[in-house]
Amino acid sequence: MSTLTKVLIVLLSVFSLFLCGVVVTYVANAENYKDLYDRQRRDIQTARNNQDDAENALAECKEAAEKTQQTLEQQISDMTINVSNLQAQLEDLKRQNDQLVQRVATSAATVTMTSETQKTVLEQAQAAQARVRDLEDEQTRLESDLKETNRLLLEKIAIIEDLQTKNKQLAQANQELETGVNQYLQQRGQVAAVPRPVTPTPGIALPATPPTRQIDLNGRIVRVDNQLAEISIGSAAGVRPNMTFHVTRGAQFICNLEILDGGVDTDSAVGVLKLVQGTEPRPGDTVKTNL
Amino acid sequence: MSAMSQSRGTKVAVPSNLYTAVLAVAFAVVLATASFVAFMCFTRYETIFGMP
After folding, report:
1. How many CA atoms lie within 13 A of A181 on its CB side?
2. Residues A232, A264: contact at Cβ < 8 Å?
3. According to a count of CB atoms within 10 Å of the terminal CB, is the N or C end of chain A lower?
4. Distance between B7 CA and the closest CA of chain A, angstroms
5. Considering the entire predicted model, what is its pTM?
6. If we measure between CA atoms, which residue out of A286, A231, A282 comes closest to residue A259?
7. CB of A27 less than 8 A from some CB of B
């Protein structure tokens, strides 16, 4: 056996051992690609199944979302209608609130005017009571004067009766004297003339009629409260307390208005309604002093 | 290369079985490696030469 053969045998053996070691090492450490392939294939199949499930779930979710959207759109339309109705109701309530506020303001003004009128009436009532007291005092004084006058009248009547008795006696005596004179004169063809008093008989003194003129005031009724009314003219136009106005509406007579004491202002006056004919006066009616 | 020829020409040498043993060992190793690779292929891919 040559040396070269020996060397080749040794080299062949060494490289065979080395190559076998490398191959064994590689095969022992190599991955199992079949298992890897199967695993990947299962994963892909699972992923496809998951994709199908996800697509089905997506379709169901889309359908549910569309239904929910339709339901929500219906609810939105209902809510819009409700909002419109509520806004209309809110407008109505605001209008009613404004009307109520206006009525409250009007009522407050009426209450204020009524309070002022009541105060005025109370003052007038107090003045009237004072006047009544004065009138009672004057009545008492007049009654005492009347009693004194009656007493004097009775005395005068008694004197008059005495004088009438004397007058009758004198008339009877005069008749007798006249009869006697006539009998005496008839014997001579004469008749006694009718006696005529030397002084004229005084008559009853009458007061002279004062010259008059028409006042002729015209105005309008501004406010009416129960039996009280306010007119649009006052002391500047010539209105005075206790003056009587005639209230008319067109050609229809409504009532009379008597101005109160203390109820006259510069450009307005307050009076009491009298002789109401059934139709109640109202603001705008005409008031005149002369029909 | 017999003993006769060696005795006629060159120096006669005792034949050595060392390289035969080395070749035997190498062959055994290669055979074991091939068997191992075939076993692993069949175990993993259920075939030796074909595609799984």
Report:
1. 11
2. no
3. C
4. 15
5. 0.34
6. A231
7. yes
